[in-house]
Design goal:
single chain; alpha/beta; five-stranded mixed β-sheet; two-stranded parallel ribbon; 9 strands; 46% helix; globular; disordered C terminus
Length: 338
């Protein structure tokens, strides 16, 4: 049964890449909205989890408001997928028309300094589009990390997709990924990590919307060990076809404290920047899994959430694990958007 699910998942993603990119853009956008609405109406586990997470972000929201936000959230989530399936066909001009980033000078100045830059992002809007904009419009290649997926053919498909967009993809295998990222940064390069969720026992605890969650320590440790600039980035959609974004001010390395203490301070600063962007655009936060420690009801012997270990493939396949060397990634099982 597991092999059948793996083959089905691979086949569905393959169908998406092969078919959606051939559709006219308005047709693809309409298809995404219809799929999102169907998933939302089913009230599946991931939709209910999305509403639960949004209730923390918007604590004064009525049930009706939460339902509106979760429906908009599923539409935003499917917009991500429709865009991503089509990205390989977008010209440089189409990419440039599709995104508007504020305060990009932080990134440009950091790269010009030669010290290397770590961009850390939450699961907001479409980070793949932002990445393509960096590679095509700024002409800057970057390195990211991908978790190994099942089946292997699906992992290979995602790696080939991102590499076709100009990204260097490093598999997360113990400390080897961290070492390569560090080398790229010391050479003045760019590293991009999606870094708003880490359920491993070694994730760094942060206060996030008033309660405790874990986020990966990797971005902060990379900045400490390589001297790279650490920049939070948040993204969002509005009522236009243009995705918006903001590069936040740099997260500085504290002047005193142990590595763990410095990492805690820096990761909390990232969490605060993420929270600012998510609070402004909660419907674009694609967090369809458990995040806060209080929500981790059942744990395996290693302290990880046995339900949330099955992280939604749609969200986490987008991003990279920002873990530090030797940190263990959550295991993968099948998950779905609805």
């Amino acid at each position: 049964m597991s092999d059948l699910k793996d083959r089905l998942s691979d086949g569905l993603y393959g169908l998406g890449w092969a078919t959606v990119k051939k559709l006219p853009e308005p047709v693809a956008a309409g298809l995404g909205r219809r799929i999102a609405d169907l998933a939302w109406k089913r009230r599946g586990t991931s939709v209910l989890r999305l509403e639960s997470n949004l209730a923390r972000v918007v604590p004064d929201a009525t049930p009706e408001r939460l339902a509106e936000l979760s429906r908009a959230g599923m539409r935003s989530y499917m917009r991500y997928w429709m865009e991503s399936f089509r990205l390989p066909t977008w010209s440089r001009e189409r990419v440039e028309r599709g995104i508007d980033i504020k305060d990009i000078h932080y990134l440009k100045e950091g790269l010009a300094s030669g010290r290397g830059v770590v961009l850390a992002l939450p699961h907001l809007a479409n980070w793949d589009l932002a990445g393509v904009w960096v590679t095509r419009s700024l002409g800057v290649p970057f390195t990211t990390v991908a978790e190994r997926l099942k089946p292997e053919s699906l992992y290979d498909r995602f790696v080939a997709y991102r590499e076709s967009l100009g990204m260097e993809v490093v598999p997360h295998t113990g400390g080897s990924a961290f070492g390569r990222l560090a080398r790229r940064l010391r050479a003045g390069g760019l590293v991009c990590l999606v870094a708003d969720r880490d359920l491993s026992a070694s994730g760094t605890e942060v206060t996030f919307f008033g309660d405790t969650a874990r986020m990966p320590a990797g971005p902060a440790i990379l900045a400490q060990q390589t001297g790279a600039l650490l920049l939070p980035v948040t993204l969002w959609y509005d009522d236009t076809p243009v995705m918006k974004g903001r590069v936040h001010p740099p997260v500085d390395v504290p002047g005193t404290g142990t590595r763990a203490e410095k990492t805690a301070v820096m990761t909390q600063a990232l969490a605060d920047a993420f929270a600012e962007g998510i609070a402004d655009h909660p419907e674009d936060w694609h967090m369809l899994q458990r995040l806060w420690l209080a929500d981790l009801e059942e744990r395996d012997p290693e302290g990880r959430d046995s339900d949330a270990v099955s992280e939604d493939r749609g969200a986490d396949e987008r991003g990279a694990a920002g873990r530090a060397p030797g940190e263990r990634a959550p295991e993968r099982r099948e998950g779905g958007a609805a």
